[in-house]
Amino acid sequence: MSSAVVVPESGAAATPPRPRKSAIKRRRARSGVVMAAPAVVLVLLVLGIPIMQAGYYSMTEWNGIVAHWIGPSTYLNEFHNPQFWRVLLNNFLLLFAVPIAVAIPLGIAFLLNERVAGWQIFRSIYFLPTAISWVVIGMVALRFFAGEGTLNKMLAGVGLGFIKTDMLSDEHQALVAVGITFIWSMVGTNTVIFLTGMATLDPSLAEAARVDGAGSWKTLRHISLPQLKRFIQFAAVLTLISAFTALFSLIFVMTGGGPGYGTTTLEFFVYQSAFARAAFGTGAMLGIILFVIMVFVGLAQLRLLRTED
Amino acid sequence: MSTPTIAVAPLSTVETPSRRKRKQPLRSALIFLSMVLIAIVMLYPFYFMVDTSLQSNDQFLHGGGHSLDSWSSLNSALPWGRQMVNSGIVCAFAIVVILIVSSLAGFSFAKLQFRMSTFVLLGVVAAMLIPVQSIIIPVYVNVAHLHLLNTYVGAVIVYAALGTPFATFLMTAYYRSIPDDVIEAGIIDGLSYSKVFLRVALPLSVPALITITVLQFIQIWDDLLVGLLFLQNPEQRTITVALGALAAGRTTDVPVLMAGSIMSAVPAIAVYLVFQRFLINGLTAGIGK
């Protein structure tokens, strides 16, 4: 599970001024600084400063030991690199997995929310893969999609043996296999998010709609879904973030980024550039590009939440 | 804005009244059937792992039969005992660091406003937007400069820092839900702020601490990238990294890999089964308002 990007409740920190001795206030502020310091220092040292270092090194030629300053032209050079666009295309294609990875769990959550006997057990089963490493998921998926794998056995079993697939050996289909595995992995997380949302719904609204003669579909479309909007957005953003920043292990195990650049996404490209090709400067730059994309995602999420209030 | 941000989902308590489905056994049966089908899809990998691990490589490749070959040769391919201990050490220390720094900071941000504290909190929380891949190269070089590569310390620091922003966010939200009066009462009684934190606030926040522990345990236990780079010696490798390395080494002995996968997954699944509720709380903590 990647940690979700969430919007801090800013502003709530402003406590109304109280008639207090300023000595106590000062003592409180001093304790506050001391107690916040360890977390701030840790985050600064391992996240804050390195992201700035990455910004600097992205404009150098760097082998990990010696860095030669080149300047912003490194970015322009990379933008002329067809491989870079190939990789970015993969990220773009992964976007298509996001609505599916949201819609399927939404449907499942509606099923569970009917609270038919045993629904809690099913919820636990669906959520179980959340505990499993992408490494393990990737290993099983590798065998599922393999030429002699389960998928082909299943196809043969239902008389579709002529569609013999070998998705992972095909430069274009491999990403589809990764995408399907990703969607499967998100089912538990997103289902639980929607179930949480449904628990907050006001049942009397749906009841009223039914009394007024609205069918199941209409009730769902016009009553339940709008009420779940915030949860759908949250799940979509979480899924998007996962697709762009949490698939390293899955790709590492399933395809190693191949065939060719077939499944190399930006995050995997960072690793490949730095640790397989020793192009640390390029790796740092790709990391910065990924960071900028995530900042835009974060800002978009903020806007979405704002407009709703 | 003063409501607690942690959406503690009343998952099992809400029983919607007057379900009209009561008299529709066919509908219920169809829903049940769909849920069973979905469960099969979700459980298939677990079945595959167990079934495959109970075959020899020859049986796996050419079909038929079961044996315990892969389990008896597992330890030589993947010294899982040692690696699980490594995973345990890294998880334990990283989680302890995360719990200490995030509870302290959360208490500070929620209850001890100092100048610019909102701004600082925003900075810490915004660090969640930084993908690991964006900082991993400079961090790797920095850790190498400090001669902490291939030491538990290096990996623990990196894991701890990666987990701190979200944990701090969670703790801040949690402490905000505790009334100020509770804290002030302690101060009026003559306690220092650190004493109030230790004796009053910390005990109240045990559920949030458990949530963080469970989330981070699963995250760190299952992680590949950081371990792959910062713990390259086989002696310090975590189980997940060892498994990833074994898989990437084009090992063709799938049953052994599956046996290893099961071993690596057992602790995380156990934690999941026991603390499921806390995991769900942590997951949905970001949505609440």
Structure in a nutshell:
The complex is a heterodimer of chains A (309) and B (289). In chain A, 69% of the residues lie in helices and 2% in strands. With 309 residues, chain A is mainly α.
Indicate the CATH architecture of the largest domain in chain B.
Orthogonal Bundle
Radius of gyration of chain B: 24 Å
Shape of chain B: globular
Order of helices and strands of chain A: HEEHHHHHHHHHHHHH
Q: Which regions of chain A are unreliable across 5 or more consecutive residues at pLDDT < 50? A: 1-14
The tally of beta strands of chain B, per DSSP, is 0
Count of extended strands of chain A? 2
How many domains is the backbone of chain B divided into?
2
Query: The CATH topology of the largest domain in chain A is what?
Result: MetI-like fold
Radius of gyration of chain A: 24 Å
What is the mean pLDDT of chain A? 86
Q: Biggest sheet of chain A: strands side by side, in what order?
A: 1-2
Q: Let me know the average pLDDT of chain B.
A: 86
So, the CATH homologous superfamily of the largest domain in chain A?
A: MetI-like
Q: Could you name the CATH class of the largest domain in chain A?
A: Mainly Alpha
Order of helices and strands of chain B: HHHHHHHHHHHHH
Distance between the termini of chain B: 7 Å
CATH superfamily of the largest domain in chain B: MetI-like
Describe the protein.
The complex is a heterodimer of chains A (309) and B (289). Chain A folds into two domains: 29-77, no CATH class; 95-264, MetI-like fold. Helix content of chain A is 69%, strand content 2%. Chain A has 14 helices and two strands, in the order H-E-E-H-H-H-H-H-H-H-H-H-H-H-H-H. Chain A has a two-stranded antiparallel sheet with strand order 1-2. In chain A, a hairpin with a 4-residue loop joins strand 1 and strand 2 (67-69). With 289 residues, chain B is an all-alpha fold. Chain B folds into two domains: 23-72, no CATH class; 79-284, Orthogonal Bundle (MetI-like fold), CATH 1.10.3720.10. Chain B starts with 24 loop residues before the first helix and ends in a 5-residue tail after the last helix. Classes of the chains: A mainly alpha (309), B mainly alpha (289). Chains A and B meet through helix 1, helix 4, helix 5, helix 6 and helix 8 of A and helix 1, helix 4, helix 5, helix 6 and helix 7 of B.
